[in-house]
Amino acid sequence: MTDFSGADLVADALAQLEVEHVFAIVSIHNMPMLDAINRLGKTQIIDVRHEQAGTHAADGYARASGKLGVMIASTGPGTANTVTGLYEAQFGSSRVLVITGQAETAFYGKGLAYVHEAEQQVPMLASVCRRVESPGHADQLGPALAAVVADILAGRGAPGALEIPIDIQYAANQPSKMPVPDLVQFAPNEKTVAQVVDALRKTERRIIVAGGGVIAAGAQDAVCRLAEHLNAPVITTVDGRGTLPETHPLCIGNFYNAAGLYEAIQDADLTLAVGTKFAVGVEGQFAAQTPPGTLVQIDIDPTMIGRTHRVAIGLMADAKLALDEINRQLSTFAPNNVRFRDELLAAGEAVRQATRHRLGPDWPKVMDCIRHKLPADSVIVRDQTISAYSWGNQLLPILQPRTSINPTSGAIGPGFPMSIGAAIATRRKTLVVHGDGGFMFHATELATCAQYQVPLIICVFNDSGYGVLRWLQQARLGRINETELGKVDFVKMADSMGVPGQRAANPDAFERALDDALAAAGPYLIDVDMEGFAPMAMSVVPKPRPGS
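The structure corresponding to this sequence follows.
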């Protein structure tokens, strides 16, 4: 290897970007980069057990910190394994970079069955990334990496990928300056801001819908200022949780799609939607829930404005820049109609209490125990599981931005590795709410947790199967099939990989286990045996429409 190689360029670029950790699995096609990173000593490598888990971890790292999440994989099978993680990152507008090796340039594209040959790796990655680069010569490496990073960091977040042939990793090179995107290009248009201000001034029953774009832009304080000035209730999407503390008197929380609340907001004369896609649910669920009144939509991505619902005013801008300017112009302004505000807040609380009541006597104790004992700045991650659907995604209070993470795509399984990334990024105690079925997807990452003493509390809500699907099958088909997984002793599994834990079969046992988990310096697993808890009532799910 030369004094400064392509691998050194990558290591130096990560240092410039202040990337403190990268997730990786070593391979003959990426070991020059890992060696260069270790020699430079500015970025720590976290050795994961599977590339999909590593990519999810990079995603959780990015969401919890607001920084770039990085996964380094091998070409071919290793890179193929990253695709699911990149899919989730794309769905969640998350800033994730996958760097992978590739066959050396003399053999690339020749179809000679070169080891780990992946002739279609670029189009494969392009199906889940906004930008993919593949330098064909050493002097193209710096510009290629800079282009991918600039795309990831500019505008709406998105994953990107870079493949680097192994000979280019070894070849002589020189440092390349990494770009820092300029937010000025996403400043709001003055005329459109004036239209928004005028619409707000002419209305008196306004609501704010805050999505994940608010968190990504760091616009939570601007939303809070506007809400308090207008006396306007704030409804969040699941990714927008933490925009306001869910103890704030104007925060209704993640209940936009609840029938009781949606009915109550129909008297609104203006909806201000910030950084949300208005995601459509299963079988077109929620698509017909048109925001009431004049719809004003602010988004950094112009293709999202008006995509789901027709808008009256669309403002393409960074959410913080836009809201700061709106706040500046609304210094004298009539607040919301008090009766409308109070009725809407009461409706939100009624939905919250009704949802809580359906949990039965035991699960509210578990939820309250978590919130009472966990620090306000702890990250709470939920996988797609009954406990998340029933209480984690709506009722468990979120108190700060970037402390609420869930798989935006609806995938089962990403929660555990995402929580690993979040805990490593923040160095704070993190808790993940998981089901046993999804946990088995990445259970081997327990070894990663033990190796790096990740400060993570892993709560596996164990009902011996895919509980959500089991319930859906029973509700819609009258029988269950292919959802029974058998009872697994996760405490023994964790112990075998160096992670302590205990089983909890009632609320009191859960509280004792959580105390022990909080006292532990590293990871701790709680195997929550759901058979020992009083059952919860599930919401009615409509049967599919004919022809759907």
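Residues 326 and 389 are 35 Å apart (CA to CA).
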